Amino acid sequence: MGKLGQVIRSTFGLDASFLLTAQTQLKEIPGWDSMNSVNLELSINAEYGLDSSNFTLTDETTLKELATQLNQ
Amino acid sequence: MKAALISTGSWVPGDPIPNSALTQFPAERLPLIQQKTGIAFRHYAGPGETTSDLALKAAQRCLAKAGFPAGQLDAILLTTSTPDRLIPATATSVQAALGASQAFAFDLNSVCSGSLFALHVADCMLRAGVYQNILVVSADIYSRFLDPQDFATYPYFGDGASAALLSTVPDDAPVGFAAAYLRSDGRGAELIQIPAGGARLPHARMKNPRDAFFKMDGRAVYEFAVTKGTEAVQMTLARAGLQPADLDWLIPHQANQFICEEIARRCGVGVEKLVTNLARRGNTASASLLLALDEMRDQADPAGRTICLVAFGGGLSYGAMVLRT
Description:
The structure holds two protein chains of two kinds.
Chain A: H1 2-12, H2 34-48, H3 63-71
Chain B: E1 2-11, E2 17-18, H1 31-37, E3 41-42, H2 51-66, E4 75-79, H3 90-98, E5 104-108, H4 114-127, E6 133-140, E7 160-169, E8 176-184, E9 192-193, E10 215-216, H5 218-240, E11 249-252, H6 257-267, H7 278-281, H8 288-299, E12 306-313, E13 317-324
């Protein structure tokens, strides 16, 4: 999952043992909740230089969908 | 003989810090703090303030309210998970500053359940008949161990201290500790932690600087708190032979308004009996229980009250006590 995977692992403190795939939904990430969603938002702001209005984070958003949003 | 609560005291440092002051987070996200936790303000210790400084102020207030000389204390139990240093115990600094020359003093760490566990230990020590007067002091400065950039933890904690003086009373006294139910579950040890700074991971061996900060699995902790907090209250009331309607005050650990309300609801305790101060104080960790109790005692006459204290926290640890004041 490249850069996005690294951002998620760093934000949520995940080591390599937790498998991230294109189909992984945000709600499946350990520690995901409404508060940590803000942390992910801030990490994406910092790593991608994108304003929060450029992407949407929901419980059901998959990593593939998020990557598509960030690459557009 | 048995043990009774004689006096309480508390201390919060500095001015109240509103959510709006947390400018490291997007302004449009700050309303989430109060929406999700009920917290609107917290206090932070100043750069030169230590856990023992806060503890001392709370202890002094507690003893002053009772007109009790520190020199007559038999023991000081200090609860904290943010001690001044790993060694020596923070309690000894408080003991020296109070001039409690006859007291032995030690720290007790059960994270946010610490004050409840210490009250129970003190109760047992007094019931044994060996000691007569014990001071429980609870103090935490979590602001020193939170990642300022972590929206999932930083906004929710405040610094503070509280204290309770317990003394022996005759068995037929109308006041005293009536029942307790305490448990630990180490299978959940990873859910609430500060990974580095101990023997497991000394700071010098950290590879990830964020291991120096507090971390918590929010969803899992919420479920644990409401489930086990409810269990603790129900078990304690049963042991005391009481019904929820017999309580005057239900005082939970002040972690989250919705956890507190859910425990009250599940236990059949009316919201009018629920005591919270977290909107103004945040989560002050082990200090929160006695801080809420002390502030309530200042607002409403504590005489003739039947009170249930319930706590839950890292360990995992949880429990409840019923007392009459």
